[in-house]
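[09:14] KT: can someone run the structure on this one? pasting the chain below
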Amino acid sequence: MRTVGAGRYELEAEIAKGAIGIVWRALDTTTGERVAVKQLRPEAAVQAELVESFLGEARVLRELDHPSVIRARDLVQSAGQYALVLDLVNGVDLRRRLRADGPLPPQVAADVVAQICDALAYVHHRGIVHGDIKPGNILVPVDGSPVRLADFGIARRVPWADGRNDADRATHATPEYVAPEVVAGEPPLPAADVYALGIVLYELLCGRTPYRGGTAGEVLRRHATCVPVPPPGLPEQIWPVISECMIPDPDQRPSATIVARRMRAVLPSLAGLAPLAPLAPDVVTWWPRSAEDTAPVAAVRRRVTWVPAGTAPVSPAAAYSTHFVAVPEPVVASMAVPQPAAPAPAARRRRGSWVPLLAGLAAAVVAVAFGMTALLLLNQPHRAQTTEPAAVVSHQPGTPAPHSGAGPTTRPSSGAPGNPSGGAGAGTGTPHGGSPRGGPTRGGSSGGSGPAKPPAGHPASSQPGLPGIGSPMPTLPAVR
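[09:31] RB: done, structure tokens below
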């Protein structure tokens, strides 16, 4: 019988195996209880980086005490041997559950996710990011006790948690569940766990993640350039939660606390719903994202208001006369027509009633004087020709483009003002003809649900190599 911890823990059977460690079911000979022992492989125990990561998991778990977080009992370090003693959960992880039985009933899936949200809210409040949320790290006890979040091997602290900055650490991630900002090189923050949880909820309902298929690089790119598509039959009350968890901008995702509340709110409406059938290989689960919403998003985008092209401060406006263009709201506010001021209170009007009266009389006197002067000028028998700048004419589609004239035009000296003389040209205005380079500033929508069939070149959703199962991969570059 193999033992660790100076013979205290007897290793009975292997439960799981990973790239750097093995998990055993063991007997604690001191208490008589069954425990789980996560042991670092001998070849990994000689690598300082892997040892530090293993010890980091022990330090993180030592700080946590929540019914939905796996609990650490002991840490064994002796003669190059490293082992972490954990609670033994009598049950299976969700990865095995999905492989054996397919998608979960919607009510069960929502309840599981709500419990994991409780665990994440607790962990995030303590400045810790799990970093590897996926079905394989969620344990479901057979006795109905709370589900457990396990495997904090790549957990890290957010930069503001204790003054230490983990930004220089390499980031490990599982391709199917990694947030787009992490793909871009940013360190994972709590919003990255929420993003992964949205994908887990999708997988629990559908049997597979939305971006599965192809190489790890292809899966990673889809997080930044695609949106998930709800398959037929997915409960409509759950889809908004999934889509909001997977928003590319991390600042716009809901917190774990909000997701838990929303999941519990829809539980009654999901009662009795049967699980979805496993998705067929040709079912579309992702769709290309519109160009203006591709991730990662460095900052929250400025809000946009749609206004008619004729009033937008773009040039040439006439080229977009049948479209709308997007203008930032501050610009739209500056284009607004000033509204008349509200009338003053009655008491205030009585005290200052003589002011508008005097102003009106003065305006009348000025108008009379101006009119008499104009009549005298018009009655002169011989008036010299005058010149004025010609109006700039915007060329409209479908009409001949005006040519660039010689500048000012002359007006005859008749009593009434006349049109510019024929053949004098339209002045110096730049024609607005020709085809625009790009159409409206921001056209179309972000494409949430997508059409029912894949576009040309859309890869098959089920391919034999499925990245994301097993040890986290790949290692993403650290942010410098």
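[09:33] KT: thanks! The longest strand covers residues 9-17.
[09:34] RB: yep, looked fine to me
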